[in-house]
Design goal:
Elements (H helix, E strand, L loop, with lengths): L17 H17 L1 E4 L5 H17 L2 E7 L20 E9 L7 H7 L1 H10 L6 E2 L7 E6 L5 E4 L6 E7 L3 E2 L2 E4 L10 H8 L7 E3 L6 E4 L5 E4 L2 E2 L4 E6 L1 E2 L8 H8 L23
Antiparallel strand pairs: 1-11, 2-3, 3-5, 4-15, 5-14, 6-12, 7-11, 7-14, 8-13, 9-10, 9-12
Length: about 280
């Protein structure tokens, strides 16, 4: 992996060396205090170009268009709130995505499966062990946000999300978040409503460079990708890691997120947009 990753700066393949232990401790502090940690430039510029070279034709000809209107929870089952509560404001999300079964020959899969990276993330998150996801579609997703597209405000249902930024947009496409907007004990509906109506001064914008790995605790921190404009799109890979070996989506979830349930190469017969109210992943 020396050809692809900056292992001089991030010696993840040497977990017992002092510099790696120092790096892990620094990332643990960031994750605890900020709800995330970043490894800027982990993947080299040349490696990012190689990933995009293989991804670009798939995004252009065989990507799934994910398009829907939703609330921040991606769920209409909130009987405890009045339908006009600001926390249930209707938002719009639209992007293109490709799945792991389309990336088997791409460098992005090699990076995702590299055991020293997985073990480093587990160390930072203080997990006994992490594993790649068994699901042949969901284990890796690549998302593209072109002009006019957006990933709107939402909470993740997973404990943490791992992403690798491959390309910044010409304009927009920035990662915005409001840390600890809610907790497992307190949904803070009024606070959510204030944020959605622009009345929360704790919303932050994170600027990243291509090649940056980000691990973000998004279950209780609201976040979004701002609308994109210009000729260059935002492209990001999402890596799914779990504490168990057997994590996988159901057929219903695959159909909801990817428009298909089967594993295939070449063009998908299910390439279409959908609107649904199932909980966001």
């Amino acid at each position: 992996m020396e050809r692809y990753l900056d292992l001089a700066r991030y010696p993840l393949h040497k977990p017992d060396c002092s510099s790696t232990r120092t790096l892990a401790a620094s990332c643990q502090r960031d994750y605890s205090e900020l709800g995330m940690f970043n490894l800027p430039g982990l993947v080299s510029t040349d490696a990012v170009r190689e990933c995009i070279a293989g991804i670009r034709p798939l995004l252009d000809t065989d990507s799934y268009v994910h398009c829907r209107d939703h609330n921040i929870y991606f769920d209409d089952g909130f009987s405890e709130l009045d339908s006009d509560h600001p926390a249930l404001s209707i938002l719009h999300t639209e992007n293109r995505k490709i799945c792991a079964d389309q990336l088997t020959d791409n460098l992005i899969t090699k990076i995702y499966e590299w055991r020293p990276l997985i073990d480093f993330i587990a160390t930072v998150l203080e997990k006994p062990q992490l594993h790649t996801m068994d699901d042949p579609l969901a284990r890796i997703n690549v998302m593209e946000y072109s002009a006019g597209q957006i990933l709107n405000w939402h909470f993740d249902r997973a404990e943490f999300t791992t992403t690798l930024l491959l390309q910044n947009a010409s304009s927009g496409g920035e990662f915005q978040y409001r840390a600890e907007l809610r907790s497992d004990e307190d949904p803070n509906y009024d606070g959510v409503g204030l944020m959605l109506t622009g009345q929360d001064d704790q919303v932050k914008t994170l600027s990243l460079i291509p090649g940056t790995l980000n691990v973000f605790q998004g279950r209780n921190s609201a976040h979004r990708i701002t609308p994109v404009s210009g000729t260059e799109s935002r492209i990001i890979a999402v890596f799914a890691y779990y504490e168990t070996h057997s994590a996988a989506f159901s057929d219903d979830e695959r159909l909801y997120f990817y428009g298909r349930t089967d594993i295939k190469s070449g063009k998908s017969a299910y390439n279409r947009s959908v609107e649904s109210e199932k909980t966001w992943w």
